[in-house]
Amino acid sequence: MHIMEGYLPLTWCIIWFVISFIIVAFGIYQIKKIVDETPESKALLAVSGAFMFILSSLKLPSVTGSCSHPCGNGLGAALFGPAVTAVLATIVLLFQALLLAHGGLTTLGANIFSMGIVGPFVAWIVYKGLTKANISSTIAIFFAAFLGDLLTYVATSFQLAFAFPAPTFGSALTKFLVIFAVTQVPLAIGEGILTVIIWDRLKAYKPKLLDKLGALAPNEA
Amino acid sequence: MKHKVINMERSTLLILAAVCIILFIAPLVMFSGHGEDDGYFGGADDAAGEAIEESGFEPWFSSIWEPPSGEIESLLFALQAAIGAIIIGYFFGYWRGQGKEE
Fold first, then answer.
1. Which residues of A touch B67 (CB under 8 A)?
2. What is the CATH number of the domain that holds A148?
3. Is residue A139 included in any domain, yes or no?
4. Which among A69, A44, A145 is positioned nearest to B80, based on CA atoms?
5. How many domains does chain A have?
6. CB-hemisphere CA count at 13 Å for B97?
7. pLDDT tens digits for chain A (221 residues)?
8. Which residue of B has its CA nearest to A191?
9. A204 in a domain, yes or no?
10. Residue A34 counted as domain residue
11. Cβ separation of B84 and A207 shorter than 8 Å?
């Protein structure tokens, strides 16, 4: 999902940067509030960020014959919502843009938008919807992480199709969806499973804290 | 208040981990013998970059710093994963040592 450095026209760099900046700023405000109200959630913030660090460093092979990486953005989204996750994603993407030449500074806003905003937003909606319906949070987190990962790549495909609608928007979208989204399906399943395993342990160690953050299904609390 | 959180059996966790491993070994087996030279196992990000170049777009900015070799790149990727793993391992070990709340 990394749009490479310099690969987006300037107008689009600015548009995505502005949108992402607003949400990241709101996320920073939310983090301050959460840490003030529940200081012990600092450790969960660190774990959510660390999970993203690990998962987004793993370039995994897919059944399409190419490689891509998971995002790890479903965990933070389920715990803290999309804006906070956008802040965590910004840290990961900055690390990769500066040290690994993965993604870039000009495309940072666009990459934050896909991995830090669209993916986590979808994961958050899915997670809240399923847990509100009293589906076990362990099952809910699988679908949240699976769809959060997949929709991150769908978002990148849309971003590229908007910027390069040649010959038509539809054909460009199909081209980028084939490159990104199809490759991503098995990876998203893997990400779902890994997030379930982490979630299961979190529930075992910190049930009260998860409940306090409103991150459990009503029948689990 | 007693929480009604239900955790998975150890065997379920192991099965899930095994599914994950199989999922990522499968492509290696399916395309065994193929490599980067005949277009396998390349990165999706690079593939998208190539598709953009084909449309005639010239990248207008390049990374201010790039890992000078594949070795250094893998070093930094390993570092990234290690940072994440240390943090998760630290807190999970700490919480486990604390025992369950209540």
1. 99-101
2. 1.10.1760.20
3. yes
4. A69
5. 1
6. 6
7. 899 999 999 999 999 999 999 999 999 999 999 999 999 999 999 999 999 999 999 999 999 999 999 999 999 999 999 999 999 999 999 999 999 999 999 999 999 999 999 999 999 999 999 999 999 999 999 999 999 999 999 999 999 999 999 899 999 999 999 999 999 999 999 999 999 999 999 999 999 999 999 999 998 87
8. B20
9. yes
10. yes
11. no
